[in-house]
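Support request from a user on the community tier.

User writes: "When I paste my structure tokens into the form, the page sometimes reloads and wipes my input. The last time it worked, I copied everything first. Here is what I submitted, just in case something in the input itself triggers the reload:"
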């Protein structure tokens, strides 16, 4: 019974951790398939309260030529340097809703990291199931 519990904990914790990361990624990417791609430029970086990572502030023009300035909700290290041209995804219905279209900023990295940990947890659980059966 102890071996089964070891595998349950050893597989369950990574799977739950993966589920948390996957959920964050899912909600960050949800509904963005209809968003429009464009180019933007990083104009500044800032630190949010309690966060050591720098978050970029970027500008872009929508398809009507209106200029928008957006503060990213995701901090990262190393930061994106001021003056760097970046791919941008924005909501055509509400262009002020925009993200820098990178793995980390758009949430796809969270999905990938979550899938990896879910896979590791599932593998440990399956190994434990077959070894202790």
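"...and here is what came back when it finally went through:"
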């Amino acid at each position: 019974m102890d071996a089964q519990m070891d595998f349950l904990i050893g597989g369950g914790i990574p799977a739950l951790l993966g589920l948390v990361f996957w959920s964050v990624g899912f909600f960050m990417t949800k509904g963005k398939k209809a968003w429009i791609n464009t180019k933007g430029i990083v104009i500044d970086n800032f630190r949010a309260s309690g966060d050591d990572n720098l978050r970029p502030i970027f500008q872009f023009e929508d398809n009507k030529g209106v200029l928008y300035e957006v503060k990213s909700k995701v901090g990262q290290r190393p930061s994106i340097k001021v003056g760097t041209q970046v791919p941008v995804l924005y909501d055509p219905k509400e262009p002020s809703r925009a993200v820098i279209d990178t793995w980390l900023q758009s949430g796809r990295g969270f999905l990938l990291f979550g899938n990896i940990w879910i896979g590791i947890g599932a593998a440990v659980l399956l190994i434990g199931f077959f070894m202790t059966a």
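Agent notes: The reload is a front-end session timeout and is unrelated to the input. The longest strand covers residues 36-47. The beta strands are 36-47, 54-61, 67-71, 85-91, 94-100. Escalated to web team.
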